[in-house]
Amino acid sequence: MKKFLGMMLVLAMAVMFVVPAFAADTSDNNSAKSWFQQMFDFHKTQVDQAVKDGQLTEEQGKAYKEQFNQMYQFHQENGFVCPMGGPGYGMGYGRNMMNGYSY
Asked: What are phi and psi of 65, to 5 degrees?
C-alpha cells in the first residue's frame, strides 16, 4: 500500500511539471485533452493492477476511480489546463497565490 501511494505521489508530481506545457498553449486544446485522457486511463490501469496484486481492496480501487472521474469531469468543464494557470502562476513570478506579489 505504501509503495502504491508513493508511486501515485511521484505521478502527481510529474503531472505538476508536465501540465503547464499544455496550459501555455490553449489553442491546441485537443492535444491537451488527449494527454489528460491518457493520464487518467494510465492511472485507472495502475489502480486495476494494484487491486489485482492485492495492494488495494476493491472498495479502494473504486474510490480512486471515482475520484479520477470527478477530476476528469472538472477538467472537461473548466478546460484542460493546469489548475494553477500555467507558467507565471505560482511559479515565483507574475500573479500567483500571493495576490499578485512578484519577486
From this structure: -65, -35
CA distance 52 to 50: 5
**pTM over the 0.70 mark:** no
Cα separation, 52 vs 4, in Å, equals: 13
**24-59 burial: b if 16+ Cβ within 10 Å, else e:** eeeeeeeebbebbeebbeebbebbeebbeeebbeee
pLDDT in tens, the chain (103 residues): 777 766 666 666 566 555 555 555 444 567 888 888 898 999 999 999 999 999 999 999 999 999 999 999 988 888 777 655 544 444 444 454 555 555 4
Per-position DSSP letters for 75-92, written without gaps between them:
HHHH-SS-TT-STTSSSS
Q: How far is C-alpha 99 from the geometric centre of its chain's CA atoms?
A: 24
C-alpha cell at 98: 500571493
